[in-house]
Specification:
about 240 residues, mainly beta, Coagulation Factor XIII, Chain A, domain 1, five-stranded mixed β-sheet, 2 helices, EC 1.14.99.56, AA9_LPMO, hydrolase, disulfide bond
């Protein structure tokens, strides 16, 4: 017999399942089209069971969303100029802004102390485009990757050889109209870069520290854009990809 109590419990379970499906992790590194196994080169994140996001940009978790998993993670060897990326454990269900950062990793990519300072530089971003409204109607932002579970990008060809962390990130903006509402989905992979150049990555930021949470690309109501809106401003530093 289906009782009211049983119906309430079913509703809770259904809501929980929907929530988990709406979130995701970034467990797989993509190298020249080949996808690694889960957490082979990506440090296992704290949300590997829940899929839940980071929402506090001042938290230490905003760096790589993991604690003490570096030494248990393998380091992938790639070449400067290679196409790499991340595969999520589900489609990117939420609309948002995507980016990728790298950081020189001393003493090694599998060290817990790697990349704790002002060492991160952005190598790629995918910014939503803006379509202005007509006849007094509000404009709209157009998001990418919603029917995909992969993002890919190029390691800068002039990047010097060495050990690095590479950080993939989506800032989901569906509930970002209040401070702390933006959701950060993050994965950090460990790389050994060969055949590099003599470039000087810049500008450099730290995590936490790269975002305040008040940037207009993070604190934004994408469902009710203001009448004077002109386009999405990407948060964080400018892209370096030489």
């Amino acid at each position: 017999m289906f009782t009211p109590k049983a119906g309430f419990l079913c509703a809770l379970v259904a809501a929980a399942v929907t929530t988990v499906k709406a979130h995701y992790t970034l467990p797989d590194l993509i190298i020249s089209g080949s996808v690694s196994s889960d957490w082979e080169y990506v440090r296992e994140t704290q949300n590997h069971y829940t899929n839940g996001p980071v929402t506090d940009v001042t938290s230490q978790l905003i760096r790589c969303y993991e604690n003490d998993t570096a030494s248990a993670t393998s380091t992938a060897t790639v070449s400067a100029g290679d196409t790499v990326g991340f595969q999520a454990n589900g489609d990117f269900y939420h609309p948002g802004y995507f980016s990728a950062y790298m950081s020189a990793a001393g003493p090694a990519a599998d060290a817990e102390s790697a990349s704790l300072g002002q060492t991160w530089f952005k190598i790629w971003e995918n910014t939503p485009s803006y379509t202005p409204g007509v006849n007094g109607q509000p404009g709209t932002l157009n998001f990418n990757f919603e029917d995909s579970n992969q993002i890919t990008f190029r390691i800068p060809p002039s990047l010097p050889s060495g050990q690095y962390l590479i950080r993939g990130e989506q800032i989901a903006l569906h509930v970002a109209s209040t401070y702390g509402g933006a959701q950060f989905y993050i994965g950090c992979a460990q790389l050994n870069v060969e055949n590099g150049g003599n470039g000087s990555p810049s500008p450099l930021v730290s995590f936490p520290g790269g975002y305040t949470g008040y940037e207009p690309g993070i604190l934004i109501d994408i469902w009710d854009l203001p009448s004077n809106y002109t386009g999405y401003p990407a948060p964080g530093p400018a892209v370096w990809n030489e």
